[in-house]
Amino acid sequence: MTAVPGLDEDMEQGLAEPVGPDGTAGPAVRRARAWLSRAAEPGSVAFWRFVEDAGPVQAVRRLRAGRAPDAVRALVGARAEQDASLADLLRAQRCGARLVVPEDDEWPGHPLHCLTLATGREPDDPRHHPARTVSPVPPVALWVRGPARLDELAERSVAVVGARASTAYGEHVAAELGHQLGQRGWTVVSGGAFGIDAAAHRGALAADAPTVAVLACGVDRVYPAAHGALFHRIAESGLLVSEWPPGAAPHRHRFLVRNRLIAALTRGTVVVEAAARSGAQATARRAQRLGKQVMVVPGPVTSAMSVGCHELLRDTGLGAVLVAGAAHVAEAVGRLGEDLADPPPRPTGARDGLSDVAVRVLDACPVRSGVSPERLARVAGCDVLDVLRVLPVLQLADLVECTDAGWRLARAPSAGRR
């Protein structure tokens, strides 16, 4: 096997210098994880466990020397003989991106710990491991483009996901959620796709809040192509995040794999719209399995784009919470006693706060002709003294008026009398 100049030497140095004095990964470790991010597709339990047990540098050396377990070598295949790690790092640098690895202090270790715990529950036998598209495996590294710190944005974040073929209702709700959450200091995380994803990102940006798009391709690529301006704005204040190195294509299976990151990085997942079978539903169920809160926006029962939302709400084992706005979301995933949602405002009227006797007297008052207090007492079923006691109160509230014939309901003022 032909050695790539510099790679093997870097790996040798990395055994002694895994982490630099500034709290970031050493050059060899970073290059090793860059190589690993291209060597195997994310989502494999066996591959992640191999890297964790051997360490990134030793894992690269063993893979390149053909000394890795057969199951792991099969996942890498012909890529073991290739090395684009240095080119990937330089390409990332040219587009303003960087590689964040578990050895960095920027690594979002706390949010992603749920993936580590879930992977630990998987069996030892690779034959019984789940498929990559549904496996709860932590990433070996993350390519990040943007000025913000990944750990800081992930610390107080919410995923907002939904249908690509969204309705006007869904896009309006998603944009409002993104905007209101951004105003409350929450980071909106989504997938950068058409429909609900894009609406949520744009809502956050409209609030001058950072937002995170987790991509199924390289952070230097725009997919869908129509979102070039949107991705540029996200990268200016927020982050574009991907497990795949720069230049990686958006293959279909990668969208299913990346959904676990959207669920894991955030405190909870909000599903705005979802068809009966959708990726948004799958993301919500993965969030629940990772111990994250699932929230659902209800929609019209006649809308095919809300069928999936209603099914999530009907699934009692999922524990989904119905939300109608950012206040509900913040209450569901925020700190106890600090992010409580205010009760919805209720319209008030002049009858509010009236005693039982006052209400009965008011109901006994005729509309047109006035009547005596004695007549009101008979209709209301109370004493005349009670009627005489409450009539001034009702009059001050402009609910009744006294005429020559007696008491009656007060007439509403006309436009000309105002």
UniProtKB/TrEMBL annotation:
Taking every annotated instance into account, which residue ranges of this chain make up the domain Smf/DprA SLOG?
Answer: 136-331
Listed under GO biological process in this entry are: DNA-mediated transformation
The record's section on SUPFAM superfamilies has: MCP/YpsA-like
Q: Which intervals of the chain are annotated as region Disordered? A: 1-27
Its family remark reads:
Belongs to the DprA/Smf family.
Q: What is this protein called?
A: DNA processing protein
